[in-house]
Amino acid sequence: MYGFKALIFDVDGTLADTERDGHRVAFNAAFREAGLDWDWSVSLYGELLAVTGGKERIRYYLERWLPAFSPPESLETFIPKLHRSKTTHYLDLLRKGSLPLRPGVMRLLTQARQAGIRLAIATTTTPENVIALLEASGPPGLRDWFAVIAAGDVVPRKKPAPDIYQLALDQLGLPPRDCIAIEDSDNGARSAWEAGLHALLVTTSTYTQGQDFGAAPLVLDSLGEPDRPARVIAGTLAPHPYVDLEALDRLHRQVYGIG
Ligand code: XBP
Ligand code: MG
């Protein structure tokens, strides 16, 4: 018996390391297809990740790097169109199976499912991207393991605002205290924390190493596997050098001062 009832996962960087070799590549393919000579390098993309959401990221790029750009139509039409093309390219990449789930993800999801812990997603990315990732990179039917998939434009404000976590909590019908959030970024950790999810685990990803995760009580470099221990960046990981439900239960007890 565990002290929590659900796990709420972020997607990009948490379930899979999707940004550098997935989203970034898809943005560049969409730019080429639209006849634009923009190229988001690995380092520039790291800066652009300060803004969550693909459409918001394109707008930020234009404001900050290309203020003189004159779009062929209004930005309100141009950006969503460009972003739809990006989503198509991203889905193609996913279907090729080129973005695997991170170490420990399937092990933890499987253990949670067997223990009756509910699974949910709270992400900034487009819903189709989430479904496609689960279908392409996980076992058949993985999407049905998730009781709630809260994604994309369904809330007024994207991370670091708490809206998407609040929506996931509402749809689960649970208070924050009954849930554990798993994130990879500063923006995501802020979003979860502001939604009241203080039992918060951060597993850093390609672009988020070295970020400040606020008061997150446990920060690791991955969930780890029995043959591939997680590296502890902050907090204490026990009883094993990888994240399992026992480790999450200890984290939950520590955060809420239980027994
Ligand atoms: C990460 C993001 C997303 C993706 C792009 O979301 O910021 O914007 O980079 O996705 P999370 P879209 O870590 O919350 O999963 O282009 O579909 O917006
Ligand atoms: Mg993320």
* Helix-strand topology string: EHHHHHEHEHEHEEEH
CATH superfamily of the largest domain: HAD superfamily/HAD-like
As for the number of domains, it is 2
Strand order of the largest sheet: 3-2-1-4-5-6-7
Which tags fit this structure?
alpha/beta, DNA polymerase, domain 1, binds magnesium ion, 2 domains, 9 helices, Rossmann fold, globular, binds xylulose-1,5-bisphosphate, 259 residues, 12% strand, 7-stranded mixed sheet
If you had to describe this structure to a student in words, what would you say it looks like?
There is one protein chain. The protein is α/β, with parallel strands linked by helices. It folds into 2 domains: 168 residues, HAD superfamily/HAD-like (Rossmann fold); 77 residues, Putative phosphatase, domain 2 (DNA polymerase, domain 1). It is built from 9 helices and 7 strands, in the order E-H-H-H-H-H-E-H-E-H-E-H-E-E-E-H. Strands 3-2-1-4-5-6-7 form a 7-stranded mixed sheet, with helices on both faces. Helix 1 crosses helix 4, helix 3 packs across helix 4 and helix 4 packs parallel to helix 6. It is globular. The mean pLDDT is 97. Bound molecules: xylulose-1,5-bisphosphate (XBP) and magnesium ion (MG). Xylulose-1,5-bisphosphate (XBP) binds next to helix 1.
Tell me the layout of helices and strands:
Layout: E1 6-9, H1 19-33, H2 42-48, H3 54-65, H4 75-95, H5 105-115, E2 118-123, H6 127-137, E3 146-151, H7 163-172, E4 179-183, H8 186-194, E5 200-203, E6 218-220, E7 232-234, H9 245-256
Parallel strand pairs: 1-2, 1-4, 2-3, 4-5, 5-6
Antiparallel strand pairs: 6-7
Helix pairs in contact: 1-4, 3-4, 4-6
The structure holds xylulose-1,5-bisphosphate and magnesium ion.
